[in-house]
Specification:
single chain; alpha/beta; Rossmann fold; 7 strands
Length: 253
């Protein structure tokens, strides 16, 4: 019997396998309008979050021989933010995602003049089963994708597997802020955002799923404890924009 999902739980998903398939289909379906929707719904604040995260890891990114992996890369915006800190001729950044349509859009960006002299290798694969050797990665980032994994603990363990000792991990994802601002934002997030998403994309399901997935995602203290239980040390969380999002950082022991 398949175990129930211990991560993302899209509507109708009964176990980890069906949850993974549902997420894959969902993102393939919204790929053509994904970037537009992200920028409109976040008022372009998402660009600031990607750049801030990339700047955090600039000391590693500036090393030409560092091997960098962007997991759940989507349409490649986090990958592009990382590339801005890579010197020409550096080792290629690995960009991994299992949604074919999303990765195809990312490949278009990776071949643009903006990436001239900076290489990216796109990998179509599941983040829970990455075709990457043990202990080979210096830095892993993932932006707004980890939350959609069917098993959070398995995702952390798989990342830990491919990382070198002393390698760094950065997980940028949404959070439910507290206080009065949190109440106002959560009302927008749960009631207004799905309507805007439906109007722009023609589909309500992904934007009804979004607030549900954020609510289901572990709170910062729970996430930090999980990271430590999976073999990471120096785990921290830095809130972005009043706690709407935040960056989890850790090091492989």
């Amino acid at each position: 019997m398949t175990a129930p999902a211990s991560g993302a739980e899209p509507p109708g998903a009964a176990d980890e396998h069906s949850a993974s398939q549902a997420v894959q289909c969902m993102f393939d379906g919204i790929a053509p309008r994904y970037d537009l929707l992200n920028h409109v719904l976040s008022a372009n604040v998402d660009r600031i979050w990607w750049r801030r995260t990339a700047s955090t890891f600039a000391p590693i990114l500036k090393k030409p021989q560092a091997v960098v992996l962007d997991v759940c890369c989507g349409t490649g915006d986090m990958t592009l933010a990382l590339l801005r800190h890579r010197p020409a001729g550096a080792e290629p950044v690995l960009a991994l995602d299992f949604a074919h349509a999303m990765l195809e859009r990312a490949k278009e960006k990776f071949s643009s003049p903006e990436c001239s002299g900076k290489a990216v290798v796109a990998i179509e694969a599941d983040a829970l089963h990455m075709p990457i050797p043990d202990g080979s990665i210096d830095l892993i980032t993932t932006a707004f994708g980890f939350r959609n994994l069917a098993n959070y603990e398995a995702g952390l363990k798989e990342m830990h597997r491919v990382m070198l000792p002393g390698a760094e991990l950065g997980i940028l994802d949404f959070n439910e802020p507290g206080g009065l601002f949190g109440k106002v934002y959560n009302f927008y997030f749960r009631h207004i955002l799905p309507r805007i998403g439906k109007a722009l994309s023609g589909s309500s399901a992904p934007y009804a799923y979004l607030p549900h997935s954020v609510h289901r995602f572990p709170k910062p203290e729970e996430m930090l404890a999980m990271m430590c239980s999976c073999g990471f040390i120096q785990a921290t969380w830095t809130p972005y924009t009043f706690g709407i999002a935040g960056l989890y950082r850790a090091v492989k022991a």
